[in-house]
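User: Sequence recovery, please. Input:
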């Protein structure tokens, strides 16, 4: 859905934009599918900050999203498209024939009144239907992909993203992810047909610090503005450079241009790495 701009009544509003919510059909979430979201402010179990710039934010409820959709061959009706404060994508409220309600990530063209189904066999390739990678034709966009069979969707869940099935050979399927990475997955891994909803989420400009604080994001201070005791970039008089050969993290580790992915057993399934980010 397109983003909405307000009249520039202030400096913050002049450059900011908001989600239009034109596709949302239900504003009150299902109470049985809510849980209280506990805030950790970026701190681990010892109370030390392990992820910086987190804390505060508006109170939020967690929606219990069904990433498995293991009720196979049972059609479900889409009764509502809802907003989720914890993600950019929309959620669709599915109601099965037995009356059970579940949330699932909504595909881009999901509409109230439509039907979706999950199956381990081949079926009709319609947005929102969920099948194994082996049952999805080559070139069809998919999302909410499992990394291992039965695990539940892990890949391609962000607003507006999609992946493509490139090939299926033997027990493995080749998938090209949104980042450009090409990797092998089990052909029995489930995936949902279509791209993720709300593709215009990336166009939102938050505009001012207050909106970021509502999202639970605290201020980010430049390292070169700190003292040497606080950051490797700190110190000096006036507008000094960082004084180092390359940027470093607060703990002194290289910050840019250095691979951070640890060696994993699953590295053998990556055929092509993701595209390098343009700086």
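Assistant: Recovered sequence (279 residues):
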């Amino acid at each position: 859905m397109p983003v909405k701009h307000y009249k520039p009544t202030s400096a913050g509003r002049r450059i900011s934009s908001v989600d239009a919510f034109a596709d949302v059909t239900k504003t009150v979430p299902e109470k049985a599918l809510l849980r209280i979201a506990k805030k950790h402010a970026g701190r681990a179990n010892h109370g030390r900050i392990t992820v910086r710039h987190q804390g505060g934010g508006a109170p939020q409820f967690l929606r219990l999203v069904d990433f498995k959709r293991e009720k196979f061959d049972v059609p479900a009706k889409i009764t509502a498209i809802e907003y989720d404060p914890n993600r950019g994508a929309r959620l669709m409220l599915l109601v099965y024939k037995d009356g059970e309600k579940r949330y699932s990530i909504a595909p881009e063209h999901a509409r109230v009144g439509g039907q979706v189904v999950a199956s381990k066999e081949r079926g009709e390739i319609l947005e929102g239907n969920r099948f194994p990678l082996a049952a999805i034709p080559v070139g069809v966009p998919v999302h909410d992909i499992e990394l291992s069979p039965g695990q539940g969707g892990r890949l391609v869940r962000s607003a507006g993203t999609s992946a493509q099935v490139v090939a299926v050979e033997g027990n493995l399927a080749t998938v090209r992810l949104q980042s450009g990475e090409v990797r092998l997955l089990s052909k029995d891994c489930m995936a949902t047909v279509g791209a993720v909803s709300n593709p215009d989420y990336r166009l939102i400009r938050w505009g001012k610090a207050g909106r970021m604080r509502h999202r639970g994001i605290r201020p980010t201070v430049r390292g070169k503005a700190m003292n040497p005791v606080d950051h490797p970039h700190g110190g000096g008089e006036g507008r000094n450079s960082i004084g180092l050969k390359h940027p470093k993290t607060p703990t002194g580790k290289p910050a840019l241009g250095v691979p951070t992915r640890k060696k994993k057993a699953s590295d053998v399934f990556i055929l092509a790495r993701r595209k390098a980010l343009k700086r």
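The chain is about 5% helix and 25% strand.
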